[in-house]
Amino acid sequence: MASALGKPGATAEADDAVDEPTHEALEATGPRRSGYVAIVGKPNVGKSTLLNALVGQKISITSRKAQTTRHRITGMRTVGATQFVFVDTPGFQTRHGNALNRSLNKTVLGAVSDVDVVVFVVEAGHFNLADAKVLDLLPRNIPVLLVANKFDLVHRRAELAPWLRSMQERHPFAEFVPMSAKNPRDIRRFFAICEKHLPEQDWLFDADTLTDKSERFMAAEMIREKLFRLTGDELPYTSTVVIDQFVEEGRLKRIAATIVVERDGHKGMVIGDKGDKLKRIGTEARQELEKLWDCKVFLELWVKVKSGWADDEARVRSFGYE
Ligand code: GDP
Ligand code: MG
What we know:
38% of the residues are buried. It is elongated, with a radius of gyration of 21 Å. The N and C termini lie close together (11 Å). It is an alpha/beta fold. The chain folds into 2 domains: 196 residues, 3-Layer(aba) Sandwich (Rossmann fold); 104 residues, 2-Layer Sandwich (GMP Synthetase, Chain A, domain 3). α9 runs antiparallel to α11. The strands form 2 sheets. The chain has a 6-stranded mixed beta sheet, with helices on both faces. It has 11 helices and 9 strands. Bound molecules: guanosine-5'-diphosphate (GDP) and magnesium ion (MG). The site of magnesium ion has 2 residues, from α3. The site of guanosine-5'-diphosphate has 15 residues, from α3.
């Protein structure tokens, strides 16, 4: 348990006494990472509490434009070298358990399968049918972190061992995180754990500037939209767009972006015959961005194969239970 929750015997209250700044939890010197994080779970397990604690009050954005595209962003937080973008998952986050019916499943699945990490929140030591319904909808090829929340309410912590083992059988969780969403120390630890499951790529938003945030973001979204529209359903959703450069030169925006795919075969799909497909993706994205911003855009597109994080075998933390 020590590795999961700090010094054995230390109470949450003692840990809370000094609330250090969150950025101290992570090294700012590592490679930049960024990605989308969905927080899911049945009602009342503490999702909103967790989200509020993660987003903090300093940087919380809502972009009207962004919401019409890939995700509904509920907040973001840049900690050290990593940018976490928290997204809303309609049907999971805002509705009641009974709304998790068949007709909703497809929407929900779409929202959740499109993120880099899913955080599945349950109450530590509990798992019932409502939890199972949510878990059933989670994708198997995206890392799912199990947050066993309200850990402060568990008095006999050793008794959690069989529960954790049973959870492990339900899903190949990438991590087990017993924690309390109300404990700042646990929140910092959560960032450090979650970070490892986000892809190494430049931030999707500038850490401070709202305008740049959405322009950079919109560029990536636009390319992404053209990418998927022009390659049909063949291309796996794990393909992503990274903005390598975004420079303003007067009335010109110079953008370099990389489409990152998982396999060589996917690269061919994106490039197309003699580069036709890639050219079209670039042209259509550029035209739309020029319309959107009413300026000239120079867009350079690259395609890169990066096998990796999506295939990594889920690692499981034992927290000393074994
Ligand atoms: P949601 O419906 O999943 O968004 O859950 P909320 O965030 O609204 O939390 C439901 C209730 O659980 C609220 O009364 C919270 O104060 C409480 N809660 C959330 N996290 C914790 C925790 O870590 N420990 C304890 N003891 N209560 C918590
Ligand atoms: Mg809530």
